[in-house]
Write a structure and sequence with these properties.
By secondary structure, the chain is α/β, with parallel strands linked by helices. It is built from 14 helices and 15 strands. Strand 1, helix 1 and strand 2 form a beta-alpha-beta unit.
Length: about 400
């Protein structure tokens, strides 16, 4: 096949690698609109399960990614002047720039052409397959927006993606109270010298603190004061716009009615986004690529191949998308939980993906969850009851509002 991958992010590079591994005679070009090495962002995080999947599909790139990743097992939360720490599952982080370097090197070694500063806004002529993996602002997808049924909704809170030279030894949360409300950050290491730090707050806090008016230097100075306890003298590092402003965002949830059109197929953020608080964007993009490669190996160029890919990935995404929605709501309703004792608040922070939590008083939910953790029969009952009760309560509250 002649394949054009639009977008030189993790999804575009990885699908190119997998297709070339499957058939070295495939003619594959990855088109990236930006110059090589100019990627935005700091570090990305993922779980051990993704690494296992990568090893199954391409051990060479998986070993390289694992070698350049950092690990943690603890989570720590700082609320006002109190701190609580929990031991949990292994998490891993890697710099986005390093990840793309590794995937680009692997792709080139297999004979994939990488075309930087090459923006694609129309289907390249003579291609058998066009993989659209250039993110939520994809120009090629938007060319056929009506066909794909692209829909975008914006979240309420504002957030800022930063780096820091403080290397966190755990996945770190910090919640700071101001006269204009709460502002918080969560961060993790991604190398021996740097960490990612995402700062978030409500619109009222955003404007009350003057973050909507300050330039990036002023924003970073204020945030360094608010989070001095976890930064320990290290600076925050931004990526200012051309006018010197900080790049605050409202999270955009993007969905598409369908993920393919003729020989054109969507991957990663071009197809779907999930709230940044679940840290699944890179994982889902790579899993999209693995699924598409598996389906194409089984079905070849038969018309149903892309439909099977879409159906499988939609099904697999349901639980992650649900968790992301509830996670975003948890942060948007932070005041519901923040005055609990820190160990309880942190426990419910870990339970923020639960569909039942928004409808149960936090203290009661904590006690029920603690009891369920001690008895297997209660754990099973909770897993069975939670989604059903949440649907019923949501329907009742929606009817009352109507």
């Amino acid at each position: 096949m002649k394949v054009a991958c639009v977008g030189g992010g993790p999804a575009g590079l990885y699908i190119a690698i997998l297709l070339k591994l499957e058939n070295p005679s495939h003619d594959i070009t990855v088109h990236e609109r930006d110059p090589e090495g100019s990627t935005y962002g700091w570090g990305v995080r993922y779980r051990r399960g993704l690494l296992d999947e990568l090893h199954a599909h391409d051990p060479v790139s998986a070993l390289a990614i694992e070698e350049h990743s950092v690990r943690w097992r603890d989570g720590v939360a700082h609320v006002r002047d109190l701190t609580t720490r929990h031991h949990g599952d292994e998490g891993l982080g890697i710099g986005r720039h390093r990840l793309l370097e590794l995937l680009a090197h692997r792709a080139r070694s297999l004979g994939v052409r990488l075309a930087y500063e090459s923006e694609v806004t129309a289907v390249p002529p003579g291609t058998d397959l066009v993989v659209v993996a250039d993110g939520e602002h994809s120009a090629l997808r938007d060319r056929y927006r009506d066909h794909f049924g692209t829909r975008v909704t914006s979240g309420r809170n504002r957030y800022l993606w930063l780096g820091t030279t403080q290397v966190f030894d755990a996945f770190t949360f910090a919640f700071a109270e101001t006269e204009h409300g709460w502002i918080w950050c969560y961060g993790h290491g991604y190398s021996d010298t740097h960490s990612t730090c995402v700062v978030e707050c409500s619109p009222e806090t955003f404007t009350g603190l003057g973050l909507d008016r300050a330039n990036e230097a002023g924003v970073l100075a204020l945030l360094e004061r608010l989070f001095a306890g976890i930064l320990d003298g290290h600076p925050l590092i931004g990526r200012s716009a051309a006018d010197g402003s900080a790049q605050w965002l409202a999270f955009r949830t993007l969905t598409n009615r369908t993920w393919y059109r003729r020989n054109l197929v969507l991957l990663g953020d071009a197809a779907h986004t999930t709230h940044h608080s679940v840290g699944a964007g890179t994982t889902l993009a790579l899993q999209d690529a693995m699924c598409l490669a598996d389906v194409l190996r089984e079905y070849g160029r038969r018309p149903e191949a892309l439909a099977v890919y879409e159906r499988q990935r939609r099904t697999e995404l349901l639980s992650v998308q649900s968790a992301a929605r509830y996670s975003a709501q948890w942060y948007e309703n932070l005041t519901r939980y923040i005055d609990l004792p820190p160990h309880q608040m942190f426990a419910l922070l870990g339970q923020r993906h639960s569909p039942l939590l928004p409808y149960v008083p936090p203290q009661l939910y904590y006690n029920l969850d603690k009891a369920a953790g001690q008895l297997e029969i209660l754990r099973r009952f909770k897993r069975w009851l939670g989604p059903r009760a949440a649907r019923a309560l949501h329907a009742r509250s929606s009817a009352a509002r109507g």
